[in-house]
Amino acid sequence: MKKIIRSLKYKLNKLLKLNWVIYFIFIIVKSYILLLHVKIENEKKWLKHVKNGGLVLLCGFHQHFFSIFRYFKKYKKFKPIAMVSKSNDGDRVAPFAHYTGWQVARGSSSFGGKQAMEEIINALSKGKSFIGLNLVDGPRGPIGKVKPGAIRIAQKSGAFIVPFFVIAESSWHLNSWDNFMIPKPFSKVIIKFGNMIKTDSINNSKDFEEKRKSLEKIMSPYLVI
Fold first, then answer.
1. Given phi > 0 = left and psi -120 to 50 = alpha, else beta, which region is 102?
2. Contact assessment for residue 91 and residue 107, using Cβ atoms and an 8 Å cutoff
3. How far apart are CA 157 and CA 217, in angstroms?
4. Spatial CA neighbour of 49 closest among 161, 191, 214, 215
5. CA end-to-end distance (rounded Å), the chain
6. Structural domain for 159, as ranges
7. Average pLDDT, the chain
8. Which residues lie closer than 8 Å to 36 by C-beta, 6 or more apart?
């Protein structure tokens, strides 16, 4: 029985990597999100900064990805770039990012992360991109744990960190490491951005860790665990 289950999982994973299957899922998800009543909070200040030529690194949790990807399409004129893991999940997420006009740097804290971070840092610091995206607790958690990559990218590129959160009036949560959230149809959803965070005050490893913990403290109350 276990062999049969493993075989089915393997075949399903292969199927979910096919471009036409991913695009079909993308269309379904995109249409589903139209059923949500989405409200945006605290976007104006950081968006004005970007429009004036500034750099921003948007930081969120994996749990909130479902609700944001369609709205984040509006940022494609700023040549945005997202860090996506080289895992099976990443293989499915990367095309979603491309379909919404985002560039993708593949890598994570567990595999290929250094190369992906350098790609994002290079894109931001050289004006190839003005917005970066990092899901801070990936690729496999633990849930709510902010990895050092986000701080490092912001510090080396000169970008401001802008955390974002998703608050759903009513939602389902998958039985996954990130307790992945899917808002229920017709529910109210708030995509809320935090204040812009500087990293230019980091001078040593202690400062770095304090900034990482501070970001984690700001973001973690918005998780559903």
1. beta
2. no
3. 23
4. 161
5. 32
6. 2-222
7. 90
8. 67, 183, 185, 186, 187, 188, 189
How many structural domains comprise the chain?
1
Residue type, 108: S
pLDDT, one tens digit per residue, over 172-200 is 999 999 999 999 999 999 999 999 999 99
**What's 197's domain CATH number?**
3.40.1010.10
pLDDT of 22-49, one tens digit each?
Answer: 889 889 999 999 999 999 999 999 999 9
Query: Residue 112 above 70 pLDDT?
Result: no
What's the pLDDT at 211?
97
DSSP 22-82: HHHHHHHHHHHHTTSEEEEES-HHHHHHHHTT--EEEEE-GGGHHHHTTGGGGGGGG--EE
Q: What is the reported pLDDT for 7?
A: 62
Contacts 24+ apart (CB under 8 A), 119-127: 119/81, 120/81, 120/83, 120/153, 120/157, 121/153, 121/156, 121/157, 123/79, 123/81, 124/55, 124/57, 124/81, 124/153, 124/157, 124/158, 124/159, 125/55, 125/156, 125/157, 125/158
pLDDT at 1: 58
Element (H, E) at 114: helix 113-125
